[in-house]
Write a structure and sequence with these properties.
alpha/beta; Rossmann fold; five-stranded mixed β-sheet; NAD(P)-bd_dom_sf; Glutamate dehydrogenase; oxidoreductase
Length: 414
């Protein structure tokens, strides 16, 4: 599976579609158009063979108008500064839609983590955190997990940063293991929220998920939790895909058996009826859940989509040119600003717990996530109905209004 590109122009085009429905000033719009800062770093790391290899790292802070910035640490081959800037802006919008006191950021390292040994991965992670030591922190810019970075990577980042500043500052990094100040719900929040938003949107149209066929593109951590949550709500998960292929069962996949197979074999191959990931995107299903990376649905394949609902469980899974086509075909896109907000919410809750050094139970965390996800989707649905716009336009307008309020109250320094 390979994602297509994303660009700043497409983001701004969608933002401008929301302007007639938002109370935006010229000054607040100017702030949004220009990220606060983007830095690049050269990261020398001693490899296992003794050679020194130079890696390229990036960190973009888009906005701090509503609070310190927060965003992912991506470990991905081909990562560049432009990608980080677009995704950081999306994080700013997402935080505003969820009404969290945060701005948006994104960064990472141009590397495929699968090509590194654990020792090399630790080395490049520590170099990255150390290189940003003066720019990150619990009240400045908070590192969060993203593509290629798991709890162990975030633990290394926290340790490197803490060693540099001379004290353990847990709130500078989120997505950590629980013994290091992490939070319950961290692994499941994004997939769970994507499923809950899907369920709420269907309920808003008088439907349920009962016996509705669902396909999940990207059966990683997010996709697995989304599939499981949708199935618990009565949906038939008929197809899922990973980086190597896809499996299909018209009557619904046995997710328990599939998970046993995946753990034993390391993938989906050999389970059910084999199809290609591209064929999964073309299935006649009620819901197509996109949980891989940005650009899954693009101008080249949008015409083949037959789902009634397309859900962005990951940022920018549907590119603007594809969304225009889908909208004309009557396909409803549930945008990342709402559908994948659970990941940001649980990261925020971890940051809050670290700040107070008081930690909640798993039940309390899941309840808090659900409350905030439901509040976000309900506000977007209400705006949609009031102004007769699509879901993304409503989410953009709500975010822009909140950002305008923040920038207007803060003013311009000096």
């Amino acid at each position: 599976m390979r994602a297509s590109g994303l660009n700043w122009q497409g983001l701004m085009e969608q933002l401008h579609q929301a302007l007639p429905y938002a109370e935006v000033t010229d000054s607040s719009l100017t702030y949004f158009k220009y990220p606060a800062r983007t830095v690049s770093l050269n990261l020398p790391v001693r490899m296992d063979n003794g050679e020194i290899r130079m890696f390229r790292g990036y960190r973009c802070v888009h906005s701090t108008a509503r609070g310190p910035s927060m965003g992912g640490l991506r470990l991905k081959a081909g990562l560049n500064a432009h990608e980080c800037e677009v995704l950081a802006a999306i994080m700013t919008l997402k935080a505003a839609v969820a009404d969290l006191p945060l701005g948006g950021a994104k960064g990472g390292i141009d590397v495929d983590p699968a090509t590194l040994s654990p020792h090399e991965l630790e080395g490049v992670t520590r170099r990255y955190a150390a290189g940003l030591v003066e720019l990150i922190g619990k009240q400045q810019d908070i590192l969060a997990p993203d593509v290629g970075s798991d709890q162990q990577v975030m633990a290394w980042a926290l340790d490197a940063y803490s060693e540099m500043v001379g004290e353990t500052e847990s709130g500078a990094v989120v997505g950590k293991p629980i013994p290091l100040g992490g939070s319950y719900g961290s692994k499941d929040a994004r997939g769970r929220s994507a499923a809950l938003v899907t369920q709420r949107v269907l309920e808003n149209t008088g439907q349920t998920l009962e016996r509705k066929p669902v396909a999940v593109y990207g059966y990683g951590e997010v996709g697995r939790k989304a599939a499981r949550t949708l199935a618990e709500a009565g949906a038939l998960v008929v197809a899922v895909s990973d980086a190597h292929g896809a499996t299909y069962a018209s009557g619904g996949l046995d997710l328990n058996a599939l998970e046993d197979h995946r753990l034993k074999t390391g993938g989906l191959s050999g389970f059910g009826t084999a199809i290609t990931p591209e064929e999964l995107l073309e299935l006649d299903v009620e819901v197509l859940m996109l949980a891989f990376d940005y650009g899954t649905i693009n101008a080249g394949n949008a015409h083949a989509v037959r789902a009634n609902y397309v859900v962005e469980a990951t940022n920018r899974a549907v590119l603007p040119e594809a969304e225009r086509f889908l909208k004309d075909q009557g396909v409803r896109v549930l945008p990342d600003l709402v559908a994948s907000t659970g990941g940001l919410i649980v990261n925020y809750l971890e940051w809050v717990q670290d700040a107070s050094n008081f930690f909640w139970t798993e039940e309390e965390i899941l309840r808090a996530i659900d409350v905030r996800v439901n509040a976000a989707v309900n506000s977007v649905l209400a705006f949609m109905q009031e102004r007769d716009v699509d879901m993304r336009t409503a989410a953009y307008a709500i975010a822009l209004n909140r950002l305008t309020n923040a920038t207007g109250m803060r003013g311009v320094y000096p």
